[in-house]
Amino acid sequence: MIHTIAFDADDTLWHNEIIFTDTHERFRALFDEQCDPERVAKELYATEIRNLEIFGYGIKGFGLSMIETAIELSEGKVTGAQLQGILDGVKAMLAAPVNVLEGVTETLKELSGDFELMVITKGDLFDQETKIARSGLGDLFRHVEVVSEKSPAHYRTALHKYNLDPARFLMVGNSIKSDVLPVIELGARAVHVPYQTTWQHEVVAEEEYADVRFETLRSIRELPALVWSLHTA
Question: For the chain, how many structural domains are there in total?
């Protein structure tokens, strides 16, 4: 029987990746006259991944990675106008409206009457807490955990913190890498709800999960029926 349903936040509850994609495009445009767009994209992604252990996930770390990439691409000759363009982009990302995905509000309200709901998400603590508050969904969650990574160890720590039984825990998210595989490794259950785009860092080759059993839904609206089928199985 399921007791707790946890949700990823970005691209599971609200749009997020499209904000990063748009900022990527604006960043590349700043260097149109200096560098090939493909090189700009490649260098920025490499810098992002290299800096994850230092800055973690989130918009602020992404902004610092853009500045570092700009310095490298320009060989130290990045202009004040280019740096201002980067800073303006970061501020715009932080101030962007929280656009809740279709069906999320109704689904959470339907489930909250019978199950304990929580959020487990990666990113900057201040930014994620702000987005939860601005989304209008905060009152539906009993717990909110913002973690630096989503490994089995991080999930184990979160479950222990709230005295949750993995056998009665269900995770819902858009990333097979972060929201499905590490949860199943702990003996809990997970549901994959794909988003329209996936960050390259979160992509997992199909052969890596070919033997892993989990459900994939076309829409979060399908979740209540699935939850009750699992709950009564």
Answer: 2
| Of 86 and 208, more confident | 86
The predicted-structure confidence for 180-203, as pLDDT tens digits, reads as follows 999 999 999 999 999 988 888 888
Are 47 and 68 spatial neighbours (Cβ–Cβ below 8 Å)? yes
Record the tokens describing residue 12, joined without a space: 């599971």
The reply to whether 108 and 206 lie within a common domain is: yes
- Residue 67, Cβ density class (10 Å: 0-12 exposed, 13-18 middle, ≥19 buried): middle
Residue 34, pLDDT > 80, answer: no
Report the length, in residues, of the chain. Answer: 233
- Using the structure block, give the residue that is written with the tokens 């508050």: 133
Q: Which CATH number characterizes residue 171's domain?
A: 3.40.50.1000
The CA–CA distances, whole Å, from 210 to 36, 181, 218 equal 37, 11, 19
DSSP string, 138-160: GGG-SEEEEES---HHHHHHHHH
The model's pLDDT over 80-95, given as tens digits with 9 standing for 90+, comes to 999 999 999 999 999 9
pTM above 0.90, yes or no: yes
